[in-house]
Amino acid sequence: MTKENLRDAIGNISEKNIERFLRKDDILKQKVKKQKKSIKEVALRAVAACLCLLIIGGSVFLIHGGYKHSIPSDGTTDIGTTDAITSPDSESYTLFDTEAFRSKYSGGAVNILCWDSTMPEFEISAEESQSGDIVKEAIYKRNASTEKELGISLIFNQQDDDSGMAASILQYVKTQLAEEKTFDVISLYSRTVGVLTMQGLLLPLNYTKEYLNLDNPWYPKSIKKDTSIKGNTYYVAGDVSTNVIYSTYAFIFNKDILSEDPSVGYTADSLYTLVKEQKWTVEEMYKLVGSYWKDLDGDEKKSRSDGFGFRSYNYHMDALCFGVGFDMLVIDNDATESDMLLTLSPDYTGQRAIDFVDYIGKLMTSNTALNDESCAKNFSAGNDISFLSRIRDIEKLTSTEGQNMDYGLLPAPKYDTTQPEYRSYVGADCSLWGISSSQADDYDRKAMSAAVIETMGYYSMQYTTTAIFNDLFPNQNVYDNTNDKDNFILIKETSSIGADRIFIRTMSFYIGGEIMGTYAAKGTDYGKYTSSLKAHYRQAIENVSKTLFELSKAFPPSDE
User: Fold this and answer.
1) How far is CA 286 from each of CA 75, 107, 360, 481, rounded to the nearest angstrom?
2) Best exposed site among 28, 248, 375, 415 by fewest CB in 10 Å?
3) For residue 504, what pLDDT is reported?
4) How far is CA 495 from each of CA 27, 248, 412, rounded to the nearest angstrom?
5) Count helices and strands in the chain by DSSP H and E runs
6) What does the alpha-carbon distance between residue 115 and residue 173 come to, in Å, rounded to a whole number?
7) pLDDT one-digit tens code per residue, 136-157
8) Sequence-separated (6 or more) residues with CB below 8 Å from residue 259
């Protein structure tokens, strides 16, 4: 397909179906938010710099619980190259023939358009890699290993991006392409990637499957199902994105309370056993947390400073709803009508979902659970049994305040024991990786781009994912067999990127499962909402469905 034919095909897609939902006021709010964030970060860095002068190496050792990889004298990171964070029963995995690749493509530069991600993911300088931050060390080593393996250099072009920034990024990309400036790899905020996909600015990755194999263990097991649209995969997630790992949701529990208070009825070992035996369900979670409340301030009423069985928050609770199987959108890749490719799932508005939200709502409105936006920070005080949030929020437990807590990791529970597997929700604050469609008529460029994504995923599984676990569980050695490491692997392998989160910005800000989670967190009647949901979002979903259906004509599935 030539660039001219591609542009003609994409021209048939109505931009109104996309840009009508991108609100300018959201963009302005995001810019103000980022300015405030920058000012705050400068202040925090200044304070951190002062504190660093006062902290001796032994103090750092105590704060982080004792176990950290050090930087060897040769300047390389001491993170293993063979014992990657992957399932112990995984098949052996290999890259494509990189020697043959180097003989054909070596010496080039690969341009990566990326965003100012929440957590470190992209370019790390040599100086930053020596800072003692083991995740940054690992990213630096991953990048260097990728460059050496492929005989190429990586050029990162970082732009501001976040929820609400999609319109400005879209305009930036279009302007760059109009000036004949091309990108190879694109890795941006998830919802921005959804908009670029609908605009035809990402090339199907299955066009380059010679160098990209979605069956490899550095991709989640559900990646094909999650990202396939009419036979094409436009973006991927997995180990290649540190922010996907960090943004995946998990159930974190306080081992100390379980060992010190037999009345809870569970031990850490019994919870780990439930997970291994596929019996960790919402009912078991309810039994664990549903009778624990400590009136620590003595006011005889539920208040934030009390000790609870469970803490979470509105949009975090979406992970619980997703974990038990409630998808908002259904993708029918066999659809022959444009408005049937994407439809509202009947499960999302059915009686089963209504009953589930009511069931969880009763817990959240009782004295044993709290809807708390600062659930991770408040959990670090050590008075609660559990909280549900993103994996990255475990960092709050390695701070000075929570350093003495012994905590454990579980996936979000299943609906019941008949549910075939755990489902780990990935929040929107993550990166998705794809190839710029500006390379549509240049196989060498798109092949190189695919090879970069694949190789970075390969080295990410060995370096960055391993470092993330070590950083969040500093008292555990990643090379030992531990329950938390096994559950970390399980959560990573069962992580899932739903279509509702990717295309949410193109429809309406809160069209995603965040609605269901919020109703559960607040204990409000979801049944009164479901009928209006069907009517309110039908047209928006149909517009997105039609756009994606037309996109499949611009990019017919290929076995190339």
Assistant:
1) 49, 57, 9, 28
2) 28
3) 64
4) 29, 7, 11
5) 24, 18
6) 13
7) 999 999 999 999 999 999 999 9
8) 267, 268
CB 281 within 8 A of CB 414: yes
Q: Quote the CA–CA distance of 66 and 58 in Å, as a whole number.
A: 9
Would strands 293-294 and 307-308 be described as parallel, antiparallel, or unpaired?
Answer: antiparallel
Q: What DSSP state is assigned to residue 413?
A: P
Tell me, what amino acid is at 556? P
How far is residue 295's CA from residue 298's CA, in Å, rounded to a whole number? 5
Token pair listed for 250: 């998990």
Instruction: Give yes or no for a contact between 464 and 81, defined as CB atoms under 8 angstroms apart.
Output: no
pLDDT tens digits for 50-78?
Answer: 333 333 333 322 223 222 222 233 334 34
Three-state SS at 113: strand
DSSP letter assigned to residue 411: P
Residue 27 CB partners (closer than 8 Å, separation 6+):
164, 165, 167, 168
Strand positions, DSSP E, 468-560? 495-496
Task: For residue 195, give both structure tokens.
Answer: 């908009």
Q: Where is 352: in which H helix or E strand? A: helix 351-364
Whether residue 204 contacts residue 232, with contact meaning beta carbons closer than 8 Å, is answered with: yes
Mean pLDDT is lowest, of 64-68, 451-455, 474-478, 531-535, for 64-68
Residue 11 CA to residue 517 CA, distance in Å, equals 38
- Beta bridge partners, 431, equal 189
What amino acid is encoded at 162 in this protein?
D
Q: What does DSSP assign to residue 275?
A: H
Please list, residue by residue across 223-237, b when 16 or more beta carbons sit within 10 angstroms of its beta carbon and e when fewer do.
beebbbbbebbbbbb
The DSSP result for 190-228, as a single string, is HHHHHHHHHTT-EE-GGGGTTS--TTSTTS-TTHHHHHE
Residue by residue, DSSP assigns 154-180 as EEEEEE---TT-HHHHHHHHHHHHHTT
Alpha carbon distance 239, 457 (integer Å)? 6
Exposure class string for 159-192: b at 16+ Cβ within 10 A, else e: eebbbbbbbbbbebbeebbeeeeebbbbbbbbbb
Nearest-angstrom CA–CA distance, 223 and 329: 16
Rounded CA gap, 151 and 78, in Å?
23
Element (H, E) at 446: helix 443-462
Inter-residue contact 157 to 183 (CB < 8 Å): yes
Phi-psi category of residue 220: left, alpha or beta, with phi > 0 → left and psi -120 to 50 → alpha: beta
Which residues is 432 bridged to in the sheet? 188
The dihedral sign for the CA sequence 190, 194, 197, 199: negative
- Phi and psi for 473 in degrees, rounded to 5? -125, 70
Phi (first) and psi of residue 36, to 5 degrees: -65, -40
Helix (H, G, I), strand (E, B) or coil at 329: strand
Position 238 scores a pLDDT of 95
